[in-house]
Specification:
By secondary structure, chain A is mostly helical. Helix content of chain A is 58%, strand content 0%. Chain B is globular. Classes of the chains: A mainly alpha, B alpha+beta.
């Protein structure tokens, strides 16, 4: 098997373009489905995760 | 569970005079321009109204309105149509401008106010977390930004060297 990075990157670009092109309403429905899936995964992973690294929430403020 | 219902609720909130103006930001806002990326919440930026006789703006009327219509509070979020929604005051000059210049988009017949792509990208740059930088890259790679307009936004808000 030969690794053709350019081909892989181009294929990714095409996939992302295809995912971005549907009407907004359809993309929002995809978000609904993605959230359902994310929550199902989190439920499956259990809830005793107090030691896990978490992303800090956005502050939407100017940098110091 | 549907974001469209969230948008309809926020539109009603505005129509009933509880808020002056709103715009969708964050990952949901970015989805209007890019491919969808999984997110767990909805960021709504709002110009809150001040209470009669007071100069202090408060989100309390928003919470009261939504709770009276079945919304439930979960920490800083209010749950609408199954989605945790965070109401954020337009606090910085950049976000204030983004709110002022937000666009109305059609979602299957429902109007939705959304930040422009350039403002979403500039806010991502200013916020600066790893996922915000990734979103900024998405905007650039997707060719979703008007370059001169984006540069103007960055220049106005001191972000050209960020």
């Amino acid at each position: 098997m030969r690794l053709d990075l350019q081909k892989i990157l181009e294929s990714k670009r095409v996939l992302r373009r295809d995912l971005a092109s549907p009407p907004v309403a359809e993309k929002l429905r995809m978000l609904d489905a993605l959230r359902e899936r994310e929550l199902a995964i989190r439920r499956g992973a259990g809830s005793s995760d107090s030691n896990k690294l978490r992303e800090e929430p956005a502050r939407y403020q100017s940098k110091p | 569970m549907a974001i469209k219902e969230v948008i309809q609720t926020i539109n009603q909130l505005q129509a009933d005079g509880v808020i002056d103006r709103y715009a969708i930001g964050g990952a949901v806002g970015a989805t209007f321009y890019l491919e969808p990326v999984a997110t767990l919440d909805v960021d709504i930026f709002v110009a809150f109204k001040s209470e009669p006789g007071s100069l202090i703006v408060s989100p309390q009327p928003v919470f009261d309105y939504l709770k009276a219509r079945g919304g439930t509070m979960e920490g800083e979020y209010i749950i609408i149509a199954g989605w945790p929604v965070k109401f954020l005051a337009a606090g910085t000059p950049l976000v204030k401008e983004a709110l002022k210049e937000s666009l109305s988009k059609d979602v299957d017949g429902t109007p939705a106010r959304v930040f422009t792509a350039e403002h979403l990208a500039a806010i991502a740059l200013q916020t600066g977390r790893a996922k915000d930088k990734a979103r900024l890259l998405q905007f650039v790679e997707a060719g979703a930004l008007d370059a001169p307009r984006f540069r103007d936004v960055l220049a106005r808000h001191g972000l050209l060297d960020a």
